[in-house]
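ok so heres the complex, two chains, lmk if somethin looks off
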Amino acid sequence: MRILTRLGGPVRHLFFAALALLMAFPFYWMVTSALKTNDEIWRSPPTLWPEVPLWGNFAAAWNEAPFARYMGNSIFVATSIVILQIINSGMMAYALTHMKFRLKGLFAGVILFGYMVPATAVYLPGYLVLSELHLLNSYAGLILSNCVSIFAIFLIRQAFLQVSHELVEAGEVDGASHMRILWTVLVPVTRSSFAVLALITFIDQYNNYFWPMLITKNPDLQLVSAGLRSFFVEGGAYGLQWPLIMAASAFTIAPLLLVFLLAQKTIMQSVNMTAGSSKG
Amino acid sequence: MTRSKVISGLKPVLFTLPAMVPFVLFWLAPLLYVLYLSFTEWDFMSPEKTFVGLQNYADLFSNPAFYKSLKVTVLFCAGSVLPIILLGLGLALLMNRKLKGSAIYQVLLFSPWVTPTVAVSIVWSWIYEPEVGLANTVLDVLGLERIGWLQDPKWALAGVLLVTIWKSVGWAMIFYLVALRNVPSDLLEAGDLDGASAVQKFFRITLPLISPTTLFLFVVQLIQALQAYDQINVLTQGGPSGSTRTLLYLYYQSAFESFQIGEASSVAVVLVILCMLLSVFSFGVSKRTTHYQ
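and the predicted structre for the whole thing:
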């Protein structure tokens, strides 16, 4: 490793170029496999680029299962969750950082405790709670059960801690309500943390699979990961129609890669903030 | 108390309710509920839950399948967390010195992290296809023996781990890059003046200064590894012959496939306790060894 550093620029470029290609290769393989005929895809050794690219495979896969619906569902659910998380983590973080009340220590402690509990471990009782509330098989259940995130509260709390308390006091002197101070003073100052929160939450929720699959059995309500997975397993697709499966995977992944390319800076920045919020 | 005092006393409560209500409903209550369920016998269907005390735990701790999946869990954690941290650190060190165009490399290395695990796992299951899959073709080209990547109990866990590492290594690298940039250069220059070698500088200065990042990645990746589900579900479903069945996967199979709620709940409780012990342990370690600036 040190030898590589010593050899300097060109060698490191070669190394990283090769590595980056290697890492991105599964995506390339997905797209080129999607363009092949069923005959060609089963040929050995495999062809690096399809003889005749069948762009129609994408349309065929798109029509084979209700992917437009799945993606719409995912975008709707993810967006709703983002909005709710912004509201409740903003308010919670405000109370924890700029208000005085007796239960503060208890609330902060309970939330810290929640940080240590793996969410997936409580899916089974969570499922039973949702069924008691008659919220199974509904977006209300899916959205409400995801609307609070401990990570979000930590992230926003950390951002609010860095805002000087004088700003808040100045607002109080002016007679502004807490709500007003929160949304017109604090949130604009810390908007980059909220941007990070929105992006990370959107990506997480769009990618979410396990919990939505458990609680929404109705195919019309399925999110894109679960929809893709059922396309993969059912309909004789398992191993028989690999080009179509690859095409479907491609358009499931594409929106996220696009979001990522457009918002790379914010996402990379999130790293800084995530690490910061973990220090408490 | 005057009316206005009551109202101003209520305000913090109103501000915390939107987060606390769902938190209690979907985190705290389930946590207590799963603890209760672990002391009962129930099959999901029958109206009654029979209280059985510690029976489920006694059964669990005498069940060889439990120990097998405990072993798989430990292997999965070690096999994903250590490579992700070490490779992430290695790559970040290489990239840390000025390198033109490194932003492009960063984007490419980071991209797997933003994509849905289910979708990329499906792509990988095609790469792992035993006859014409890319993975075995590469082994052919290298003159090595073909592997039953997901079909052979000896290799299946490695196959799942490879996808897991592929997905997270770029993410860890970015964390380390940020941390390395925050290492004050005057400290390293002071090291130079004292005649420290690159290795000494790395172990004496850089490594201690980035230890909070290491700790953070360690805890986050460990908890992620304990919760891994999507890639196992798509690639192997816990098989072949239990070689990729982690504790979490065992929990879901006993809950939603064999409907033994009590037994499943006891697995969940063990998992939660494991996570809490690990978190408390690493917070303890962090207090003693990491350096915050």
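quick notes: Chain A touches chain B through 96 residues (CB under 8 Å). thats all i got rn
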